[in-house]
Design brief:
about 325 residues, alpha+beta, five-stranded mixed beta sheet, 13 strands
Length: about 325
């Protein structure tokens, strides 16, 4: 039985179909347009300025000596300026915050200029000061020991208030001694504290409803700060009921001496009036009875002082 063979033309057609022509390969990529390269690149780069196609080595404008170097950047810059001009508010409504003036680092031992083009400076949110870069950390400028700028001053402690109160007492004692010392030019005025009990009873004022047998006669004095500039009588003689509370005695004495009294309005201890018993040497509590508990007797002296603090015991 005879074997048939394919015709010669059919075999040649199959051989051509098994190979890819060079034109098909070139259709996938592109040759580099740089005159000294011409390399076939399957993923060529397109230059945005001259619109040419180049390989990886010559993709930049400098590498392929682009004849229109920088044109795409200039076009993009013009487009951005046009967009900004269209969206920007009118010049009359635009407000530009001024740059902070140049100053020196807040650390006393540093003289570096800050808020300049070379050193912008760093603002510390804790102490509210500006520092140079080397001193921007809290440990570098001892931030924990500084009082923040614009902060309210700290209230004095109990120890400080006691020190101030005793300083007021010493100042009052000095003024009392100076007042009792006779001046060479003219005799000194006799203070109520050293006046006789008979004269004290004659000049004393108080509630007329208090029986004579239930009265205690005392001299009351207010220091210069407690009396204030509007007080007319920083010294005075008063009588009170023997069973009266110290708080009521303070109110009546302050009213009689025209001393500003804000004890019933609240507030801190630095603005409250207290009664100091000179003979007893202590601050009296508001709830103490004048004679029985506070120990006040006829002819004693009471002093109104501000900011002494609460009575002991």
């Amino acid at each position: 039985m005879a074997t048939s063979t394919p015709p010669p033309r059919a075999a040649a057609a199959d051989e051509n179909e098994s190979f890819t022509s060079m034109s098909d390969v070139e259709a996938i990529g592109a040759h580099c347009q740089y005159s000294y390269c011409n390399q076939l690149d399957f993923l060529p780069f397109r230059c945005s300025s001259c619109k040419g196609k180049y390989c990886l080595d010559h993709r930049t404008e400098t590498a392929h000596a682009c004849p229109k170097e920088g044109e795409w950047a200039a076009a993009r810059r013009r487009a951005n300026l046009k967009t900004t001009a269209n969206t920007a508010p009118p010049p009359s409504t635009r407000t530009l915050s001024p740059a902070p003036p140049s100053s020196t680092c807040a650390l006393p031992t540093c003289s570096t200029k800050i808020h300049t083009s070379l050193n912008l400076g760093v603002h510390c949110p804790t102490c509210q000061r500006d520092y140079c870069l080397p001193h921007r950390m809290s440990d570098s400028h001892l931030c924990s020991t500084l009082t923040p700028l614009g902060a309210r001053p700290a209230l004095p402690s109990q120890t400080d208030r006691a020190r101030i109160a005793f300083a007021k007492l010493r100042a009052w004692g000095i003024r009392a001694r100076q007042a009792s010392t006779p001046a060479p030019a003219k005799p000194a005025r006799q203070s109520p504290a050293t006046a006789s009990l008979a004269e004290l009873k004659t000049t004393a004022t108080g509630d007329a409803k208090v029986p004579t047998t239930s009265r205690v006669y005392v001299s009351v004095e207010a220091e210069a700060e407690a009396a204030g500039p509007a007080a007319d009588h920083p010294l005075g003689a008063f009588f009170f009921a023997r069973e009266a509370r110290v708080g009521r005695v303070l109110d009546e004495a302050a009213r009689g001496l025209k001393v500003r009294n804000v004890n019933n309005r609240g507030g801190g201890e630095e603005s409250r009036l207290r009664v100091f018993h000179v003979e007893g040497g202590r601050v009296l509590g508001f709830g103490e009875r004048l004679v029985e508990e506070a120990g006040v007797r006829n002819g004693h002296t009471l002093v109104l002082l501000r900011g002494l603090g609460a009575a002991e015991g």
